[in-house]
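ok trying again, last paste got cut off:
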Amino acid sequence: MKTKKIPLRKCTGCGEMKPKKELIRVVKAPDVKDENGEIISAGEISLDFTGKKSGRGAYVCHSLECLRLARKARRLERTFSAQIPEEIYNSMEAELISEGND
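nice, full thing came through this time. structure:
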């Protein structure tokens, strides 16, 4: 019988390759555009605990420390090619804490 391949993803905080199910996806929703193709509003950045939201994704360990490392090195901003306000980082940290991690 064939062994099932486990998808691996890299944590943007610590840089370790881990199974996808052990990581939290940070997602930037697609930008909303008008009929002329001009951006009306930028996509929202949030944590995706299910891994099913649409948009560009990056992965972080279930550790608050990894999220802080990614924040300090601005790795998420580079991944999404967008500025991320402090309020969004603070809300992501609060969500991680409420999920019961560190």
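cool. The mean pLDDT is 87. The helical segments are 64-72, 75-80, 86-98.
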